[in-house]
Amino acid sequence: MIVANELEIHLLHESALVSILKRDDLQMKESEIWDYLIRWGTARNLTLLKNLEEWSDENFNTLKATLRQCLPLVRYFHISNSDVMYKIKPYRKILDKQLWNDWKQHLILPDLTIKNKNYQKE
């Protein structure tokens, strides 16, 4: 994205990040945007452990709160199934439960309308 130095990723203000995410002309895959959001959110919370397997529910809630303005802006249904499984599923606790259910539905019946209007397919 815009911040090249991984050590300074946390310096990007949330309002700037939200503005970037609202753009339709980002030359990035949605899974890359997701990766960036996770790095940005964890960089802003130095108490989060590096090993995700050691995270508590409180850790996930902290990340979810940090990303609350950004999560609805990800175009989840543009992410490949393999990236969903390997990149997003480990963080499913920060996602709306209906989104996760809609994803499963989308895998089985991709033409069916999703229920959660906050996360559109297109």
UniProtKB/TrEMBL annotation:
Superkingdom to which the source organism belongs: Eukaryota
The protein's name: BACK domain-containing protein
